[in-house]
Design brief:
This protein is mostly loops. It has a domain at 193-283: 3 Solenoid (Pectate Lyase C-like), CATH 2.160.20.80. Helices cover 3% and strands 2% of the residues. The protein has one helix and three strands; from the N terminus they run αβββ. It has one helix at residues 3-11; strands at residues 151-152, 171-172, 190-191. A three-stranded parallel β-sheet has the order 1-2-3, with no helix packed on it. The N and C termini lie far apart (60 Å).
């Protein structure tokens, strides 16, 4: 079946395309939600920006395919072959990737929120800058994976192989679950919680709306261009912190120590500052 025939069949109401062969096909921007591609062959295909939400790709071959920017929310990719697949900037929220093989796949800047990757092979995968909140990697293989700058709030890494995994500047919460013998702080990750010590840490450009860092030690921290709207810094120590260009709309700095803080270009709309604190109105 050709890409044109697939689109015609879909437009006619057909949603069942199990075992379809579309290797190397061009389906960029295709709108195919809820289609069933079980055991389909999409090796090397291009599906950039395609709408594949709620599709079934169980046991499908998507190796070396290009799905950059595709919508795969609630998709079933269990046991799929995604080796060396480009999944940059994709939406994988609530998707099922149980037992999938993503060896050396690229998922930079992707949203993988609430997804299931239990038992998946993610050896060498690139997840830099992705949001992995609430996702389960239980029993998965993340050997040599790059999780730098990721958001790991409430993520489940129990029984996960994290050997040589890069977690530099990854953010985790007290609810994030790691193997008992793994120290995320030693691996370069930052715990985000009230009262933590983040002195001198680089949190620039991080996306942290509504974060609670009340009472935290943020002396000399780099928060340039960070998204911090409605954040709570009550009672925190931000002496010498760099908040240039940060979005601080609605943030709470009540009783915080802002001595020497740099706020050039920051958005201070609706920001609650300490009593008597003065700042340059031109910022």
């Amino acid at each position: 079946m050709s890409p044109e025939e697939l689109l015609q069949e879909y437009a006619a109401g057909n949603r069942y395309f199990a075992s379809i062969v579309l290797a190397q096909a061009n389906l960029n921007g295709a709108d195919l939600p809820q289609a069933d591609f079980t055991q389909g062959d999409f090796h090397g295909a291009t599906l950039i920006g395609a709408n594949l939400s709620s599709c079934v790709f169980e046991e499908a071959n998507l190796s070396e395919a290009d799905l950059e920017g595709a919508d795969l929310r609630k998709a079933d990719l269990s046991t799929a072959d995604l080796i060396q697949t480009n999944l940059s900037a994709v939406q994988l929220c609530l998707s099922d990737l149980t037992g999938a093989d993503l060896m050396n796949a690229t998922l930079m800047l992707s949203k993988v929120i609430g997804a299931n990757l239990m038992g998946a092979n993610l050896e060498g995968v690139n997840l830099i800058g992705s949001s992995l909140m609430g996702t389960s990697f239980m029993g998965a293989n993340l050997t040599n994976a790059n999780l730098g700058n990721t958001c790991l709030f409430e993520t489940d890494f129990r029984e996960t192989n994290l050997s040589q995994t890069n977690l530099q500047r990854a953010l985790f919460s007290p609810q994030t679950l790691f193997p008992p013998d793994f120290d995320p702080l030693q691996a370069g990750a930052y715990l985000i919680a009230p009262g933590v010590c983040l002195q001198g840490c680089n949190l620039s450009t991080m996306n942290l709306p509504g974060v609670d860092l009340s009472g935290a030690d943020l002396r000399g921290a780099d928060l340039r261009q960070a998204e911090l709207r409605w954040a709570n810094f009550e009672g925190a120590n931000l002496q010498g912190a760099n908040l240039v260009g940060a979005n601080l709309q609605g943030a709470n700095f009540n009783e915080a120590d802002l001595d020497g803080v740099i706020l050039d270009g920051a958005n201070l709309s609706g920001t609650r500052m300490p009593a008597g604190w003065l700042h340059d109105s031109s910022l």
